[in-house]
Amino acid sequence: SGYGLLLAVAKDPTALEVLSQQIADAQSDVQRRALENLGLVGTEEARQQLHEYRTRESLLRKVAVQGLAAFGETELIRYVDDEDARVREELALQLTRFHSSASATALAKLLTDDVFSVQVAVIDNLSEWPDELLLPLLLHGAVEGNYQTRDKSLAMYARRTGIVVPPFRPNDDYDLRRERAAATASRGRIHYPIMGTPLAAGENGPSRIDNERVAEITHRLQLAVGLGAGGDAGFAGEWFRQLDADDVPAVEKVLRQRE
After folding, report:
1. Is pLDDT of 11 > 80?
2. Which is the most buried residue in 38, 143, 200, 234, by most CB within 10 A?
3. Which of 18, 60, 66, 68 is nearest to 42 (CA)?
4. What is the predicted pLDDT for the residue at 171?
5. 92-127 burial string, b = 16+ CB within 10 Å, else e?
6. What's the pLDDT score for residue 221?
7. Residues near 31 by Cβ (< 8 Å), separated by ≥ 6?
8. DSSP string spanning 151-170?
9. pLDDT > 70 fraction of the chain, expressed in percent and rounded
């Protein structure tokens, strides 16, 4: 595989042939390294070969995404709906390398992914992004993401702008979060919502948010149990006092899970 890498970096005319042979190797680690190196060849044939792995098993698709990153973000965006979270997580990592509106639109969708690790892969790799692209993404994450992603988004927004946006309360519904984000964007002259993203919960709405609510209540309950009777426990108790009637189904589900 080191030989194939050397040929790819050198743009040797035999690189594609050698890497194709390595991709056919019986050892999976040799296959994966060859696929990643294929992107360095930079030819149309190499690009097409990488896209052929779009229908293969998930680990090979993940490595193909790494190789396709050498061709730019437009080659990556088509994987945003991949069925495997590992592929989407790798996609998020690769897309954060490209500071463009096209990447921002794709990353906005990944910030609402049902798998939290995909959201983390986005939010934890945006520190180098310019304000004009970053700030709309952070407001989007603060409204649409998992509750932890919402906290991370608001914290990063405060670090970047010096403006502290109060954290969303437990009983803040979706429309209220959107209104507050829109008001923040208006004050900062930030383009929000991001072009190409839904303006309402739509297909991502009720079931995703309900499951997220269950996860949030479970997490807060675990924290409260671990805090005992100290001052921080009082803060945790205040959080639970803000729950309302709309949270009853989620609370009941948490209690059933603990039985």
Report:
1. yes
2. 38
3. 68
4. 57
5. bbbbbebbeeebbbbbbbbbbbeebebbbbbbebbe
6. 78
7. 22, 23, 24, 25, 60, 63
8. HHHHHHHHHHHS-PPPPPPT
9. 83
Q: Under 8 Å CB-to-CB from 100, ≥6 apart: which residues? A: 73, 133
Q: What does the pLDDT look like over 115-155, one tens digit per residue?
A: 999 999 999 999 999 999 999 999 999 998 888 898 899 99
Token digits of residue 147: 């509750």
Q: Which two tokens stand for residue 45?
A: 């044939």
Q: How many residues does the chain have?
A: 259
Alpha-carbon gap, residue 254 to 259, rounded angstroms: 9
44: helix, strand or coil = helix
What value does the CA radius of gyration of the chain take, rounded to a whole number of Å? 22
One-letter amino acid at 104 equals A
Collect all residues with Cβ–Cβ distance below 8 Å to 126 and sequence separation of at least 6. 96, 107, 134, 137, 138, 156
Amino acid at 19: L
Structure token pair of residue 157: 């927004």
